[in-house]
Design a protein that fits this description.
This protein has 499 residues and is of the alpha/beta class. The chain has 3 domains: 168 residues, no CATH class; 166 residues, Rossmann fold, CATH 3.40.50; 147 residues, no CATH class. 34% of the residues lie in helices and 18% in strands. The chain contains 17 helices and 17 strands. The strands form 4 sheets. It has a 10-stranded mixed β-sheet, with helices on both faces. Strands 13-14-15 form a 3-stranded antiparallel β-sheet, with no helix packed on it. Helix 8 runs antiparallel to helix 10. The termini are far apart.
């Protein structure tokens, strides 16, 4: 239950007799929550409430504030400061085209004792695909691109220091999807914000959005002749598993190393009319093109390849039914098209290579994309970076994440010691799929920072199927020993991938 609900910290600031910046004795509890002021956060306005311990969560002070760095900007932030603090702050990223200020997102951090920091990204809406506001409010677009997550962090640390009367001992960031992009943006633009960053399945360039468009076009080609229904996608996944699943020593419905799986759609091509057990020629062409991806004249992927083995889950992000539409409206590209490709009318089926190049070269892309491999300033401070990606992700392709990881490795000698990349076989976008998607990333980064030794593998668990599997640091891949409980990570070893 909430007590001291809706206390106005702005009003408290006006009535407080302590001079701004003067040292005060704070109590990390209900009394401290009541005495914390908007000025302590450096916020324009704020309100707070003490929340009693309940439902497995500790008691905490919940502070909701607004930051207005420039005219036209209004960044919402929420800080949750637990009574029993571990001395660390945890930044949490958003998803889709929205921030994330939910208690659910903060739960794990609070349970571990972190003071959590969240933002709405500069927009109060929660619809992850409704992003037309980006084209209508330029400052909000800048907030979502990079400014909101940075200021959330700066003011969150300031508020935590005021509440607990001591500086945080460590700053950690955790995010997936858009949250992954935000994490990379922090490392690139604001390298002093965090000591350790966890960035999963990062939507770090607009290639994620353009890839969605061109995949939709592939399945819609020929008036939808290349369309796949759910049964067709399951047929394909079954054929992929039949050829590649057991390559890791265990047939368990998961392809551990899709990079070495060379199954080709032509193996299922019908010799006569279409049946439930074969694919038409247009379907084979569409599927092969999605596996291969498509490059533009500048050498970049305008359509990133998708991995084999997770086809049954593609329809969540891809217009596999052949209409040219998908549930995400091209990953949200339609909503930002007025600023991503000014002067051109949005047309999913009509988008061309020239449109792709214009989108990638736009001022919006320069502001939004987190593609720089130069993390030298972040690494020079001792920063540690964990990146990870589900191999069956039908949204942002794991191919793009690997490309970025390798670019960082090439540009930064310190990356060998301070960055690790993990692939999660059978896992979809951030979660889901038959793979072991439940990983304690915070425990992994805590272990790394406390011991100085990067984890060679992460252990994941699938709550639905009950499986447990190790996820190896790239370029390693897990291989089963051939005997014993497959849910025992000790029965697996990280081995080199086939060249």
């Amino acid at each position: 239950m909430r007590i001291l609900a809706a206390i106005s910290l702005l009003a408290l600031s006006a009535s407080c007799t302590t001079a701004p910046g003067a040292p005060r004795t704070q109590m990390a509890g209900a009394q401290g929550c009541a005495s914390l002021t908007a000025a302590d956060l450096g916020a324009d306005s704020a309100s707070g409430a003490w929340v009693a311990a309940a439902n497995g969560l500790p008691a905490f002070c919940e502070v909701t504030a607004s930051l207005t760095p420039v005219a036209g900007s209004e960044i919402g932030v929420v800080y949750r400061l637990p009574e029993n603090w571990n001395g660390k702050v945890l930044g949490i990223g958003g998803g889709g085209w929205a921030g994330n200020i939910t208690l659910m997102a903060a739960t794990e951090g609070l349970q571990k004792g972190y003071a959590t920091m969240q933002t709405n990204g500069g927009n109060a809406g929660t619809d992850v695909w409704n992003n037309g506001w980006m084209a209508e409010r330029p400052e909000s677009a800048a907030d979502f691109s990079h400014r909101a997550i940075h200021l959330m962090t700066v003011h969150g640390k300031q508020g935590a220091a005021a509440f607990y009367n001591r500086q945080p001992s460590q700053s950690v960031y955790n995010g997936c999807s858009t949250g992954g992009r935000m994490g990379l943006m922090e490392a690139q633009r604001y390298p002093a914000d965090y000591d350790a960053i966890i960035a999963g399945a990062p939507v770090y360039t607009l290639q994620t959005q353009t890839s969605a468009v061109f995949r939709n076009q592939a399945f819609a080609a020929g008036g939808g002749a290349g369309a796949f229904n759910a049964a067709d996608l399951q047929l394909v996944q079954g054929a992929v598993l039949a050829q590649c699943d057991a390559a890791d020593g265990l047939a368990d419905g998961i392809v551990n190393d899709p990079t070495s799986c060379n199954w080709r759609p032509s193996a299922l091509q019908c010799t006569g009319g279409k049946t439930a057990s074969c694919l038409t020629a247009p379907q084979v062409t569409a599927l092969q093109s999605v596996y291969d991806g498509k490059r533009a004249s500048d050498g970049s992927y305008m359509m990133l390849p998708l991995r084999r083995g997770g086809e049954a889950g593609w329809a969540m992000f891809v217009g596999t039914i052949g209409t040219g539409e998908d549930p995400t409206r091209g990953g949200g590209l339609g909503g930002i098209y007025p600023v991503a490709n000014p002067g051109r009318e949005w047309n999913m089926l009509g988008m061309s290579e020239a449109d792709y190049l214009a989108v990638r070269r736009s001022p919006f892309a320069a502001m939004y994309e987190a593609k720089s491999p130069d993390l030298s300033a972040f690494f020079a401070r001792g920063g540690k970076l964990i990146m990870w990606h589900g191999e069956s992700d039908p949204g942002p392709s794991p191919v793009a994440t690997l490309d970025y990881v390798q670019a960082v490795q090439a540009a930064n000698p310190r990356a060998a010691d301070q960055m690790r990349y993990y692939t999660l076989p059978g896992v979809g976008h951030c979660r889901g799929g038959p793979g072991a998607d439940g990983v304690d990333y915070l425990a992994a980064i805590e272990g790394w920072t406390s011991t100085g030794t990067a984890p060679r593998q992460l252990v994941g668990h699938n709550a639905q199927s009950g499986i447990t599997r190790p996820h190896c640091a790239w370029p390693g891949v897990a291989r089963y020993s051939g005997s014993g409980d497959a849910n025992d990570p000790a029965r697996w070893s990280c081995v080199a991938r086939p060249s």
